[in-house]
Amino acid sequence: MFSGKKSQQTLAREERAQRRSLKNTPSATESSPPPSQDLVVVNWVFLPLLDSESCNVVEIPRSLFEGVSKNARKKFAKEILNDYKFHAEAASIKFHKVEGEVNLEETSRSGDKTKNRRIVHLAVNALKEASTMETEDVAELPEIRQYRKAQEDLATAIHDGRYAKGGSTQAPPIEIFHPVFGDFLRIVSDKGHQPSVEDIRNVQELSNLLSELDETNETSRNVRTRGVLSRILGVEIYDESNADSTRSDGVYTIMVEDKRIPVLLGEFKKELGEGSCDPSTQAALSIRRSWLLDERNETRDRCCCPTFLLAGGGPWLCVMGSVLTDKVIVQRLTDMMWLSQSSSEEAERIYKVARVLSALRKCLKTLTEYYRETVPRIPPITKGSPHPRFYPNPSSYKGDTGKVTFQYLEFLEERDDCVTFRAKITSSNEPVVVKFVSAYGAEVHRFLAEKGHAPRLRYYGPLPNPYEPLLRSPVTESAPPGLTFGSMKMVVMDYIDSATKPPPDARKQVEGVLELLHPAGYVFGDLRSQNILFDSEDKVKFIDFNWTGRYDMTIKDASGVPARIQKLIDEKSVGWAKPKEGYSHYPYNINLDSTIGWPKDLGPLQPIRPAHDWHMLEELPY
Q: Which of 45, 167, 244, 583 has a CA 20 to 30 Å removed from the CA of 159?
């Protein structure tokens, strides 16, 4: 048997370990020996189910299929399923070595009889349903079961929000890892972005093509789909065969240092649900498979492999984005867009799709430039050192005296959706915390920092973009209080060396901070112990201001606020005017686990009140 390469599961676990431990495990670089030039014919017979002993055959364990023979096994299984219409899963097909004579009566179908020693004799049987535990290589499984098995292990899971017993697969927004995704979202939401007349004509043609209930095979339909998409996006999209015998329905690649790099990958079905596979899930599996190929090791060791994805079935089409950090992250950048024209007046629908696809065209140019110009200059991963691939893209901010650069050092949480990092200022080695948020109470942070009860806030604002901004118009959609739309923001603050345990007067200090906040018209909201630190001098510091902001001082809480504080609030509320930014509310996705101890009247999108802060004070462990 030939020696095999690492499975995608093994490689994915190593990728994850590189960031977590800052130790690099080199991926396999040796390639399998070339196949023999001699022709070998494979002859098989089909065994009755569970009758291998009477047929005088010995099962060949799956573990013995390695290298070239492993790929051959997949081809055999696929051909058996397709040509002989087995009602079985590919993973359930078992191969056996023929030890003796096999009579026609002992088989359900016979192969050719021959004494030629250059013919390999195999016997085959299969179960209708297979256990996914039979194979460690999830790439062998049918798409939907491959996906489900991958999601059971966070080391191999695609972090797209779908989860199994392995745990949550939420991840940070992909626009913090590469700015091209944020640019795409801004262009799509910018009312000033207009598609050309030619764009609208091409989208109309795409609509006509995808609306047809076509009886031809999927391959023929995809050829025409790729042709129209190529014209709209201004790139050549073709189908791609991978080394593991899989095939992507459409891909746009470029050559970088003699290596073919995917910039866009698409998966299309004649209809949604056809083949028991969601095309968006298939696209996610395909891009993971594509980037874990050995030939892309060098590029993968330099960057987070940003890629746009297209997924569609019938007249539906969706744009997604993916990155590869220590995990595969795939996120939907648009909803599934309906392209069929259900009425005689569908101009607006065609126009909106044209806006999305013309925005994608601009961003493909940006991403192409990134791979050709920037990636070759990025140093590869170095053992024991933090590498940019595993961290967000922004590495500078605009300070009081100009541009300030920093280097990421570590994640400050072990959660896969962690957006908070320890870093250091390049010029001074000063430790800082860098955080990425959609909403932040910068006003409250500055207020407490001036009082000495929060780290110094060095920066709060848009994510720096190394490219010229394509379009920068803000999103102006209105939403219920507590929902925040728009671009991600970056926060940079001083890092606090915290004490090993709270001081004896910890509770009194926290109470003192609330006495400052509430009469000033502010609430904190998330008053839990993980958001309260005590510095090396045992002085309290509040550190998480995502929920903080103003509250309506003209409304009095029924209970819970100390009388002396309520009196101060009443005095300050005279002449109170509602602030322009509105009042603070709890987020729509607040974790209401009973062990946290939230007030009973608290819930998603509810106003944050001073009484809630005082209630949470009682829940603190000091």
A: 244
CA distance 303 to 549: 37
Domain boundary among 350, 377, 404: 377
Question: Is residue 198 domain-shared with residue 309, that is, in the same domain?
Answer: yes
- Same domain? 506 vs 558: yes
Rounded to an integer, what distance in angstroms lies between the CA atom of residue 204 and that of residue 210?
Answer: 10
Q: State mean pLDDT over 553-575.
A: 93
In which residue are the tokens 């987070």 written? 304
Same domain, 462 and 343: no
2 burial (CB, 10 Å; 0-12 / 13-18 / 19+) is: middle
* CB count in 10 Å sphere of residue 114: 11
Asked whether residue 452 is assigned to any structural domain, the reply reads: yes
Place of tokens 């001098």: 537
Residues 425, 426, 428, 431: is their CA dihedral positive or negative?
positive
- Domain membership of residue 323 as a residue range: 174-377
Q: How many domains does the chain have?
A: 3
> 35 has which bridge partners?
none
Report yes or no on 153 lying in a domain.
no
The mean-pLDDT minimum among 178-187, 239-248, 306-315, 457-466 falls in: 239-248
DSSP designation for 415: S
Cβ(399)–Cβ(459) below 8 Å: yes
Distances in whole angstroms, Cα of residue 201 to Cα of each of 190, 338, 595:
21, 17, 57
437: closest CA among 426, 428, 445, 429?
445
pLDDT of res. 303 = 96
Phi and psi for 408 in degrees, rounded to 5? -70, 145
Whole-angstrom distance, CA of residue 300 vs CA of residue 131? 32
CA distance 84 to 410: 54
In this structure, what token pair is assigned to residue 388? Answer: 């940019």
Is the pLDDT assigned to residue 459 strictly greater than 90? yes
Of 328, 466, 305, the C-alpha closest to 11 is: 328
Q: For residue range 210-247, what is the model confidence (pLDDT) as tens digits?
A: 998 876 677 788 899 999 999 999 999 998 776 556 67
Q: How far apart are CA 326 and CA 19, in angstroms?
A: 6
pLDDT of residue 418: 93
Contact 185, 487 (CB under 8 A): yes
Phi, psi of 191 (to 5 degrees): -65, -15
Nearest alpha carbon to residue 9 among 166, 119, 232: 166
| pTM score, whole prediction | 0.74
What distance in Å separates the CA atoms of residue 31 and residue 295, rounded to the nearest whole number? 10
- Separation CA 57–CA 470 (nearest Å): 66
Q: In what order do the strands lie in the sheet with 431-437?
A: 396-399, 402-411, 420-425, 431-437, 489-494, 457-462
Spatial distance between the Cα atoms of 497 and 510, rounded to a whole number of angstroms: 18
Same domain? For 595 and 464 the reply is yes
pLDDT one-digit tens code per residue, 475-497: 445 677 878 877 899 999 999 99
The answer for residues whose C-beta is within 8 angstroms of residue 94's C-beta and 6 or more apart is: 59, 124, 125, 126
Are 600 and 612 a contacting pair, CB within 8 Å? no
Tokens of 526: 């998330």
Q: Which of 126, 141, 156 is the last residue of a domain?
A: 141
